[in-house]
UniProtKB/TrEMBL annotation:
Keywords: Metal-binding, NAD, Oxidoreductase. GO terms for molecular function: malate dehydrogenase (decarboxylating) (NAD+) activity; metal ion binding; NAD binding. It comes from the Eukaryota. This is Malic enzyme. The lineage of its organism: Eukaryota, Fungi, Dikarya, Ascomycota, Pezizomycotina. Belongs to the malic enzymes family. It holds the Pfam family Malic_M. The keyword Metal-binding applies. Residues 87-268 form the Malic enzyme N-terminal domain. Its cofactor is Mg(2+); Mn(2+). It comes from Penicillium alfredii. The active site is at residues 110, 182. The keyword NAD applies. Residues 278-536 form the Malic enzyme NAD-binding domain. Divalent metal cations. Prefers magnesium or manganese.
Amino acid sequence: MDRSKFQHLPRATSRPVKCPYEGTTLLHISQFNKGSGFPIEERTTFNLHGLLPPNIQTLDEQVQRAYQQYSSRTDDLAKNTFMASMKAQNAVLYYKLLQTHLKEMFSVIYTPTEGDAIQNYSRLFRKPEGCFLDINNQDRIEESLSNFGNADDIDYIVVSDGEEILGIGDQGVGAILISVAKLVITTLCAGIHPSRQLPVVLDCGTDNENLLTDGLYLGLRQHRVRGQEYDDFVEKFVNAARQRFPRAYIHFEDFGLHNARRLLDKYQSQIPCFNDDIQGTGCVTLAAMLAALHVNQVKLEDVRVVIFGSGTAGTGIADQIADTIATETQKSKTDSSKQIWCLDKIGLLVKSLAKQLTSAQAPFAREDQEWRKEERKDLLSVIHHVEPHVLIGTSTKPGAFTEEIVREMAKHVERPIIFPLSNPTRLHEAQPQDLYDWTEGRALVATGSPFAPVEYCGRSYDIAECNNSTCFPGVGLGAVLSQSRLVSKEMLVAAVKALKARSPALNDSSRPLLPDVEDVREISVDIAAAVIQCAVQEGLAQEKGIPIDDGELKEWIRAQMWEATYRPLVRAEHMHSARW
């Protein structure tokens, strides 16, 4: 289909780019700089002669050189720093290099290496990126946001307060890098325009004593502010962001356990927002689970799920499973929740523990009379009692899925579905090889980090990774393009079903339960289309002229996805917008 029919759209990527800069100024602006790639006519138009070597190179040639430079770095943190520097110099080259070597570089620009970069943020700091808001200057929020454009300039905001970052805890102002990294992924995986994004950190202080005593620390040197002042700060940010950028989608990232669910519950009925730690993790895990249920032919209304670890991720997964059971089987949310057993540090969640449970845990608390006290503390006893089809780990307790536990589970179900999801790899509840060995090759496995293929009885099995990046970018793309007023539960279920449909295991049970991240851009098109169609059906979509035909809708989506290519530059007198 000819995408040129959509070139009139504001985000269409087939038109030349208007540029108001020239000379050395142009070369220092990442979104316009082409380095040695400027053609002769642009060197003339923008007064670049004498500022660049004479040989004009293609983008592919630049990628080749950049990759050699990247490969010469001695460790992953140095490679991460190199990539950050490249991003600040030439955005197109940065994204093209990443796309060309996505599998290799993903763990460097995101988890786990981005965690190291965040921990060292104040020591590696060179150039600020994003919006820094602090709780002691709440009257400056609107002024600060105004530095990033006008009403139509921002599509996607990622905001973090840095309390629980990537399994490394409270990182204070360094959280700006997780906001930056998430937005890089939305561009890589779903074509969200990099100049139409805004990373934000809400600096409320930090309880990390190492940061508070570090003479180079760049954030507020005070313990975290909590309570009403914190809530007022978040609300002022949300209101100011919605007023300044009324079309923007807000993505909450790495908030603390006691704030993440509470803030999502507050704002999801008011604005288009999303929490990846809760909803993204829930969606991608559910997609893997649905694919596994297809393989072992267990119906959704019959599935029994045990979740070991009931923090933000665990309860997010539980909530997404319950929502999907309710949506797909017409059961009530209460009845759907009864198919899920959640454990945490206090053991099985039961109603008598009400005062110790978070608002996210409470819906999954079981009746006390169902259990003897000695059975509640022990995962093995719960497995024996429940006989689950699915065991999910989000506990950060390494080795928690012991051989005895796994073999007990495998006694009762033909194809045990086991997902050790805790990150990083050293915190996984079990190793995939052990799961295959302990179940005689019957286990259906997905993990939270990448693992090498395992061998069993002379056959190699690829291990699916529950990588949120296969899901949340597509959800965001669909919400942005449809201009949905909210992100509904039904929209998330639609996203899950679109991701599940891409599972290689649907056609071959020995294949992974989830698709590879290398295929993620087309996966994001499928997810965005499903989300948009659901938003239209629910009356939430505000964008006009959304195509009805599925094929045309996907071309409409692709036409608005940014690509890492050098588009022609044309002179502009003024910069009216951040679009490119």
